[in-house]
Fold:
Amino acid sequence: MAALEAAGPVASAGSDRDAWPRRQVVSFGRRDGRRQGQYARAYPPELARFVIEPPRGERSASLADGWVFDASAAFERDAPLIVEIGSGTGEAVLHHAAENPHLNHLAVEVYRPGASRTVAQAGVRGLQNVRVLEADAAELVGGALAPGSVAALHVFFPDPWPKTRHHKRRLVDAWFVAQVARALEPGGVLRLATDWEHYAHQMLQVAAGCGHLRNAYPARDGGWASRYSGRPLTTFERKGLAAGRTIHDLEFVRA
Structure:
């Protein structure tokens, strides 16, 4: 879903997703293909607990109006919630979950083979603090995450849509950042990483323009953050480095 004009104030706890204009262009190409090999079949019963099956809207990745993610029910415990959007095959979120068993982790991905692999690996590693949701991330942050329910939200190496005519498809824009700020608890953290220079500056601009967030590194090298220690070196990052691109990290905190 694409950029609109800069978003206004963060919605109050009593508002719903219809208080915000819907973005009309999706930020992803579904590219499902077919589940392959061990991921080709339906999830076996022992993996079902890792999968969130929400009510759907008209599209396969959409969420029904009014549905809100219930972390306590999904994880069967109360713990701070980490949301990773665009989790791919799960490299980063599985690493973070293994290193932080006291935190709940929601991996959000529309690429079905990637989501399937994350589910399978969570089962293999016995990570009880991981759940996987196949969903349009913009719909998720636009109302399906309760206000103040998220301790940290991670977007690592989202699709850069490098062609100018496709920039409107980029996920991280002013609307998206405002919705993330609504979902974060006070002191909650938005962490971003990209290897595309133009997108990095766009992310910095829209996050800095959100009055409900503050840059955790305002005086460091133009506002760029230090590399987050909880982010492993993933396949996407290796490709960016091999191509000679600079990795940019950002960290913003909910006021």
Summary: The beta strands are 51-52, 81-85, 104-108, 130-133, 150-156, 184-194, 213-215, 248-254. Residues 1-22, 25-41 have pLDDT under 50 and may be disordered.
